[in-house]
Design goal:
Helix content: over 70%
Order of helices and strands: HHHHHHHHHHHHHHEEHHHHHHHEE
Strand order of the largest sheet: 1-2
Structural class: mainly alpha
Largest sheet: 2 strands, antiparallel
Radius of gyration: 24 Å
Number of helices: 21
Distance between the termini: 66 Å
Length: 552
């Protein structure tokens, strides 16, 4: 039986790998506009799918439901923060950035603020943020492959590195976009089928979004019987301030993530950018609305069918996950019966293990593995393009070698992708935290650097070059310092942990940009008119204090 499961899962994953590589080869980038913005020719609905895949990383697919299952109410900060941030980006920043018409976020900052220094700092921040984020994604791919092959997760990470380096370097943004469309279809099917089956098993209702409420009520009763903190009781795993800080960090970080923003550059107009956002909201909502149901059903099955059983008679699936070092069982009181507090389950395996826990069959288990791989790979591909464009376009081409040929720039871009993937993979072999935690650090860095620079760059015409340079440096320093201090346990404010560091970085950066801009020379009249012009549709232009209709 184990061999059949292995062959089914391996076959599904290899099939999806072949699809991704085939798409990358068919859509090979032949010029820089293909490599960085997919030739700006992606239809909005497909771009919405690509945004959904880019967004639903290993943290969302693998880690989010597990985080909600273990943290209960407090885990909802992740869902609320990520969803709110996406709305913030869609309505307040993405269409305006698309109208400005650049290839990358650092290019927008450099041209908007008329500063090469700001461009280079933004490029370095992009590399730091995307690199941190990619460590979490590669770690997630290692969890999936390690479980499938029943090997250490480190070996799985190395396999993921090779695959991502190949198709991201080969296809560029054009190849990655169409690969992400395929990955979205695979991952959403893989995510929804198990939760629908679990809903049928537990409640006889095929709509988990409707039925999981009654399961949450029953979980509360079980928690009370076992003397545990109630599943839906707020702020049992952290302070109210931590909840608010984490939610703000994820929200502001979402609006400032370079690899998400650049997806809006791949369409032809502002209108198409808005429609891309609308489609993406629908596609992302399918997963985000399902995660709390996933968490409730998984916890319910564990507490009803696993906890309270003799340790030497536990289901067979527990042994395979113990071999990956992501599940640990200890009989603290020596009674031979598994208690809830004797079951140590990692956030990162809850979704992956659920089909086995619920006994959903070998095809569903294999499908889940293929979906998790799609989630980890789709985001990692977008991140590698961000790193590549920041170095090859914003630093190499715009600063170091302005006369570089198209061929030379493409070569530098591809080499950068391979080098960044390998380096991130090496760090992911011993990740410094669980997936959701590592990803939260990336969001904190984005909220402390890009969110203030973009928000004020679009909506405050008085913001200038010295202001944004100072603001990004201060925001980066404050965010990094707080992450390290809180992670070591040496310093925290109001119980706010490292994952909420972005609230301090963003506040420090916004104050710095405002103060320095007001105390230095104002931008030219032309720059200020360009900023005001971003608020109008493409059919209109703001100039000399009036709004003009463009000639067709």
């Amino acid at each position: 039986m184990e061999n059949v499961q292995f062959l089914v899962s391996l076959g599904l994953i290899l099939l999806t790998f072949a699809i991704y590589i085939g798409i990358a080869i068919y859509n090979k980038a032949r010029q820089t506009s293909d490599f960085y913005v997919a030739g700006r020719g992606i239809p909005p609905a497909f771009n919405g799918m690509a945004i959904g895949a880019d967004w639903m990383s290993a943290a969302s697919f693998i880690g989010m439901a597990g985080t909600v299952m273990l943290l209960g109410y407090d885990g909802l900060a992740y869902i609320m923060g990520w969803t709110g941030g996406y709305l913030l980006l869609t309505f307040l920043l993405a269409p305006q950035l698309r109208k400005y018409g650049r290839y990358t976020v650092p290019e927008f900052i450099g041209d908007r603020y008329r500063s090469h220094t700001a461009r280079v700092i933004a490029a370095v921040c992009t590399i730091i943020i995307s690199f941190t984020y990619s460590i979490g994604q590669l770690s997630g791919s290692g969890v999936v492959i390690g479980r499938l092959l029943e090997v250490d997760a480190k070996v799985g990470t190395l396999i993921g590195v090779v695959l991502i380096a190949f198709y991201a370097a080969f296809g560029g943004m054009k190849g990655i976009t169409w690969t992400q469309v395929a990955q979205y279809i695979i991952l959403i099917i893989a995510y929804l089928i198990p939760v629908i089956f679990m809903s049928l098993q537990i409640t006889n209702n095929p709509l988990p979004w409707v039925s999981y409420g009654q399961v949450v009520s029953e979980l509360g009763e079980i928690d009370r019987q076992l003397g545990l903190s109630e599943y839906f009781a707020p702020f049992e795993n952290g302070s109210k301030w931590q909840f608010m800080a984490l939610m703000f960090t994820l929200m502001a970080g979402t609006a400032g993530l370079p690899h998400v923003i650049v997806r809006f550059y791949t369409v032809s107009t502002m209108k198409a950018a808005r429609w891309s956002g609308a489609w993406a909201l629908l596609f992302i909502g399918l997963l985000y609305l399902s995660a709390p149901a996933y968490a409730a059903f998984s916890r319910f099955i564990l507490m009803r069918n696993v906890v309270g059983q003799p340790i030497d008679e536990l289901p067979a699936w527990t042994e395979t996950w113990i071999n990956t070092n992501l599940l640990q069982i200890a009989d603290h009181n020596g009674d031979g019966i598994l208690q809830w507090d004797e079951l140590m389950i990692s956030n990162d395996i809850v979704v992956m293990a659920t089909p086995e826990i619920a006994n959903l069959g070998i095809f569903v288990i294999g499908l889940m593995a293929a979906g998790a791989m799609a989630a980890a790979l789709s985001t990692a591909g977008g991140l590698m393009i961000s790193i590549s464009s920041s170095f090859a376009h914003d630093i190499y081409y715009r600063v170091l070698r302005p006369n570089a040929s198209d061929k030379n720039r493409l070569a530098v871009g591809r080499i950068t992708i391979v080098a960044a993937t390998v380096l991130a993979g090496l760090i992911a072999l011993n990740p410094p935290g669980v997936i959701t935690q590592i990803v939260a650090w990336a969001f904190a860095l984005a909220s402390g650097t890009f969110f203030p620079a973009l928000l004020l760059g679009v909506w405050w015409k008085r913001a200038n070059g010295p202001g944004v340079i100072s603001g990004m440096l201060v925001g980066l320093f404050v965010t990094l310092s707080y992450i390290f201090a809180a992670q070591s346990g040496s310093f925290m404010i109001a119980g706010i942990q490292d994952t909420g560091a972005g609230v301090f970085g963003a506040a420090a950066a916004i104050i710095t940009i405002v103060v320095v801009s007001l105390r230095t020379k104002a931008p030219t009249q032309k720059v200020q008119e360009e900023v005001v012009d971003l608020r109008y549709p493409e059919q209109m232009t703001y100039k000399d204090g009036d709004v003009w209709m463009n000639n067709k």
